[in-house]
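step: validate -> pass
step: tokenize input -> pass
step: predict -> running
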Amino acid sequence: MPKEMGEEQEVAYRISGWVQIDNGWDSMENKPMEMTRDQQAQVDEVVSLMEKYNIQVSVQVQRKQGMEIKDYPVVARWRLFTNKPAGNYTVAETRQENTPESNGANWGDI
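step: predict -> pass
step: emit ->
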């Protein structure tokens, strides 16, 4: 039976992150409010420092199974690092975001 017909398909996960200043959420556009040019310059400075010093952000997911912290086994770990863009892009061109509300998922389902 072809995989499209119900046979299990291989699943891979990809984690992405970005640095931005929180200006709130645009409910009509379903995306973060745009940063100003000054804010973008501040973010660019932070990213430059991360690249210069090879700073990475570590993330881990734990499953809560009780009231004690020892009952929270680690499910997954990732390290996020900076990528240098291939071209000159504006914030709007480089950012596309799905939220739990927009794709029907719920963060509690993770």
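step: describe -> The two ends are 30 Å apart (CA to CA).
step: cleanup -> pass
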